[in-house]
Amino acid sequence: MSRALLPSLVALRALEAAVRHGGVVKAADELGVTHGAVSRHLRDLEQALGVELVVRGARRLEPTYEGRRLGAALTPLFDGMAAAVEAVRRRPERESLRVSVDPAFAGLWLVPRLGAFRRERPGVEVVVDATTHLADVAAGPVDVAVRYIVHGRPEAPGCRFEKLADALCYPAAAPALAATLGPAPTAADVARLPLIHDDGREPWHLWLTAAGVAPPAQAGALLLNDLTLAVLAAERGEGAVLLDTVLGAEALAGGRLVALSPLTVRIGSYWLVTPAARPLARPAREFADWLRAGIAGGA
Q1: In sequence order, which ranges of 109-166 are alpha helices (DSSP H)?
Q2: pTM of the entire structure?
Q3: Where are the domains of the chain?
Q4: At 270, phi and psi to the nearest 5?
Q5: What architecture is domain 96-296?
Q6: Would you call 218 helix, strand, or coil by DSSP?
Q7: DSSP strand pairing (61-63 vs 222-223)
Q8: Spelled out in words, what is the top-level CATH class assigned to the domain 3-88?
């Protein structure tokens, strides 16, 4: 038979559903139409084919032999059509967020708080790339980045930089070590502790100089290349570490470290990096808002 001579697909669906369900009530529910609409489709199909497909009784419709035969033949065909459509149906793209941050920011600020962001947005896949290198935010695949800059304003082609906060540094130590200094330690008292350096000796030099104390020439100093490692060492009583007002909040709130002095010295700044030429996708935009609020609120 030519396809041009095929009856209405809607009517064929009505017959197949009615035969498979044994009546028009469930067929109508499946097709999302009224019972009367199913009955009309069946009459139209009978007229198109010139054969009786159902016997109409007082309470229900019963398929005839021809109706059952045609309905049974249509079931695998409609199943095949449904499978073919599903195979090519475009599914919603999975929302994802790729963030590039300094390792210290990842370990001391982001990861301890990331659960709150993920609970608010459970459908977003979050990828954190902890690196000291500035990722290519302009071209992707990184959506946003956070960078710690010591001097000046950062620049990179195709990137927008927004200062999140200054890094105001102060000395801290484990409670047991801090207790050895008494209730109100001076900067000179702090200088006599073993000093843990995480970025060369300059940060401690800057803080001690601002406090009016000559930096000591310590033998056997501990130098680490990441603040996260320096904080871990300080928590274990290895010496005093320079925290900042952004990354030190978690250790102080948990009581693992205590501040040794109210004096703070600005040594660097934290910057949010976003692409300048393209708008942020929704997950990245919401992450940037959450990040701003968290840092501004000291969370």
Answers
A1: 111-120
A2: 0.66
A3: 3-88, 96-296
A4: -105, 135
A5: 3-Layer(aba) Sandwich (3.40)
A6: coil
A7: unpaired
A8: mainly alpha
